[in-house]
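Contributing new records

If you add data, match the layout below exactly. Sequence lines come first and carry their own label; structure lines follow with theirs. Keep one chain per record. Anything else will be rejected by the validation script.
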Amino acid sequence: MRLAVVGAGGRMGRMLIKAIAETEGCRLVGAIAREGSAHLGHDAGILAGIGLLEVNVTDDPLPVFAQADGILDFTAPAATRTYAALAAQARIVHVIGTTGLQDEDFEKLEAAARHARIVQSGNMSLGVNLLAGLVRKVAATLGDDFDIEILEMHHRMKVDAPSGTALLLGEAAAQGRNVSLKEHSVRMRDGHTGARKAGDIGFATLRGGTVVGDHTVMFAGAGERLELSHRAEDRSIFARGAVRAALWAFDKKPGYYSMADVLGLE
């Protein structure tokens, strides 16, 4: 499978390039960086620290998309919307690990999925997506007798909160209860808040240091508490998951897929 990486100059972009090189059944055919990037013209393999690949970084996505079977995208919402439209035109796979997406972004992605094969997740880790499946099951089993709180911590440089992973887990909990996360989500508590409402799904956000990503879903009942946790120790887990998602989607019909589809959890 011929894969391209957008945001190739970033930390995740370099990890994606390395993951492609290490995975049987795919090869890198393009690397895209933003206009004006200091990495333009550099060899993608040298940039990723794995040696010469003879694929130079460019800021022109059109010729890259024309020769690729899929792209891997951990950029920013505005860039992801643009790449989704191009992936739809090229009718290729678009794996999206971008976080901070809003309702209007998802609308654009759903429109693009009429022609592209989009795999989108707030976290590409295989372990996190298995955790989401467990959260969905536990939430359905325990019901409203248990309060749900989601605690996440990331490095000091992370710009969005709650994390995409926390929202992924919150959505899994809401699905287990058959409710809307938007209507039951509590993102902030400050001052005299009153008692906790039954059915709320609470989020707590911590930032500091170099933490890759820690997530815990707490089910707190009367006299007992169940905690399900995942700790990311290396960002390469996200890159490996993204490559696996691309290979899975290669022969699928156009549509909007998740990592739960990739893992056969749906």
